[in-house]
C-alpha cells in the first residue's frame, strides 16, 4: 500500500489525487491521508508526500470539468472544505467512480462513494447556512465591521460572498479564529481572503489588534438582553429546544451572549 500524505487544502488534495492516479499502482493499492492529522503508521506501507503545484491541480480540475461537469467539480471543492479527516481519500474514491460512470453519478446516491461526498457537502452547507444566520458584526473604530467565527468546517469561501452581496458599501472583516484567516472586504471592492495572520513590524498581530478594539457590542448586548426578557414567557422556557435551534458552540461568537459567556 502506498499512502499519499496531502497538504490539507483543496490544491494539496488535488495534487495527491494526481500523483496517486498517475502512479499506475492500482486504485486499491493507494490511499490518501491528510498531512498533520493523526494516523497509526502501517507496516509495509510506503508513505509519500506529493509536491503541491498549480500545474498538477489545474490538470485535475481541467479533467473533471471537461470529462464530467462543473457540478462535479463544485461537489469535490465543497467536500474539500469539510472537517472530515478522511475527505481526501473520499474525494479520490468518488472521482474513480465518477470517471467510470460519468456526470450522472451525482443522481446515484446508492453508490457509497457518491453518498460519502453528499454527506460531506451537506455538513458544510448546513454549517454555512447557520453561520449566515448567527454571524454578528460589531462596529470598531473607523466604522469597520468586525466579526469572529469558529466553524468546524472551512466555510469562509462560501460565507464571504453572501455578506459581500449584502454589505457591498461597508468595510468588514470576518475572522476565523480556528484557522487564523480572514475575509476582508473594502468598501465598494471585491473581498479578499487572507490565509495567514498579518503581523506588524514589531511582531504584533494586526488581526488581534483589530479584534480587541473597542466596539459597540455592549450597547447591543443590552438591547438583546432587554428584548429576550421582554418577550420571554418563563413558564414556557425550553433550554433543550433552544439548543436545538441555536447550538451552544455558536453562542461564543454572538453579541447577545457575550455577557452570559
UniProtKB/TrEMBL annotation:
Pfam families: DUF4130
Native organism taxonomy: Bacteria, Bacillati, Bacillota, Clostridia, Lachnospirales
Stretches assigned to the DUF4130 domain: 86-256
Protein name: TIGR03915 family putative DNA repair protein
Organism: Enterocloster hominis
NCBIfam families: SAM_7_link_chp
Domain of life per record: Bacteria
